[in-house]
Amino acid sequence: MTQRLHLPHRRTSIAKGPEDRPGLGARVYVVQRTGAVAVALFLLLFAVLGFASGQAFFSTRGQSVLGMSSNGLLSTLSVVVAVVLLAAAVRSPRTASTVMLVLGPLFLLSAFVNAIVIGTRLNWLAFEVSNVIFSVVVGLPMLLIGAYGRIGSHLPPDSPYAHPDTDDAEVVDERPSTPEEVAAEEAMREAEIAVVQHTATPDQRARVEAMAHVHHRADRRRVWMELDATARDRARHDGTSPARRTTLLHPRAGRRVPRRRG
């Protein structure tokens, strides 16, 4: 009679970004990307039909396209804006949101400016009242979609643009906590000042150069204390003290002997 051994299956988890994780800003990203693509496709359709109508490029009285007036310049601008929106949507929803936050106010500004020049020689885009309404109808939703889940005092809980409070456990305290570390900090500061003032000893210069390879405060202090420990071990092995020494005249032999001074 054989027994089957059930081995536990290991589940491998693949780290996913916030754009791929469902429930974490998925709705916000979908709305932003879909809005950018929808506006881009409509502008492309408008531009293609405008080019097909054989309109003049700089005409102030354009051809009727989808209930609006258009000329060659307006069709070209529509293609440029559509390509920018599609490229932003392909790149990332965040990029699409940023582009729509820029283009939305530009559409509204275009509606205001072109409403003033309708019927004049400055009407280079051949705008009519329907075009002004279209610019407002498109510009305002683009602004709202770009700001959706991103701008506001109360962002949705699943918004990837919300900034949760930083966990206190992630904050690393690099301040010295022991008397030895405090003494090392003071010695480090004195050595760095001496190097800047060109009054440092060879040992201070060597230590400052060794600390230059690390960037965090705790790591620099660790390097300094390791050099202190190495100096003490070397002095203990040589039978001398790492303290500064001066020479005095021996009272009997008339020769100089080292005298330790703290």
Automatic annotation (TrEMBL):
Keywords assigned by UniProt, alphabetized: Membrane, Transmembrane, Transmembrane helix
Residue ranges crossing the lipid bilayer per the database entry: 36-58, 70-90, 97-118, 124-145
Chain spans, region Disordered: 233-262
Bias type Basic residues, positions: 252-262
Family annotation (Pfam families): DUF4383
Protein name, entry field: DUF4383 domain-containing protein
Phylogenetic placement of the source organism: Bacteria, Bacillati, Actinomycetota, Actinomycetes, Geodermatophilales
